Amino acid sequence: xxxxxxxxxxVAYGYPNGTPALRNINLxxxxxxxxxxxxxxxxxxxxLLHHLNGLLLPQAGQVQVGNWQVTPKTLRAVRDCLGLVFQxxxxxxxxxxxxxxxxxxxxxxGLSSEMQHHRAIEAMQAVGLNPEDYxxxxxxxLSGGEKKRVAIAGVLAMKPSILALDEPSAQLDxxxxxxxxxxxxxxxxxxxxxxxxxxxxxxLCDRTVVLHHGEIVYDGSTAAVMGDPDFLEQYALEAxxxxxxxxxxxxxxxxxxx
Length: 258
Fold this sequence. Notes:
Blueprint: E1 4-14, E2 20-30, E3 34-38, H1 45-52, E4 60-65, E5 68-69, H2 75-81, E6 82-85, H3 98-108, H4 113-126, H5 131-134, H6 144-156, E7 162-166, H7 174-186, E8 190-194, H8 198-204, E9 207-212, E10 215-221, H9 222-226, H10 229-234
Parallel strand pairs: 3-8, 3-9, 6-7, 7-8
Antiparallel strand pairs: 1-2, 1-4, 4-5, 9-10
Helix pairs in contact: 3-4, 3-6, 4-6
């Protein structure tokens, strides 16, 4: 049996105004899997991701990240294990220089200056940023694609075993988007990717979870769900562009609701 990197059991959460955001979410992700979380606006994607590292705590049920149940007492250990990359890198990059942003996490982990330096160099190289060229640059002056890479590098420098990304291709031009897909494809980490970009999900993830009004309505093969435009339309989603071409063959049968 595959080892679970993440286990969510019967999780429910509602907004202060009483609107349900997550309803009885059950989800297990194995070590090394890349899983897409898709759904229309308001489906609960970001809310679910925010439960994975304790930015939000479930009002019912529990979230297990690695060996840790997510509680107020375990947040440091959970966040060392699972790194969250926000949709907008400007929400994540706040230090004067790229180097200070990338070393911020290792510094707060209590690592030595030597180890901080090693982690930062390794992380920047992993995302294709030459430390000599970028270390002293101001993050706010970078392009959208460069900011996204710096944000990911700052998370990788903390050596998480799980990477959660909220709309990673948002605000990227086509070239930067393609570079991001190549980057994520190379990273040997468990990945949970919340996205509207169904082509990205198709490129990267063998498994897709569809959320609708805070409930899981599909959990299975990415190829199957992306090849079923009627099912996607039912939940206000459109088939990937690559599957809207006349020659795109549906290799698997239609999917059914959970």
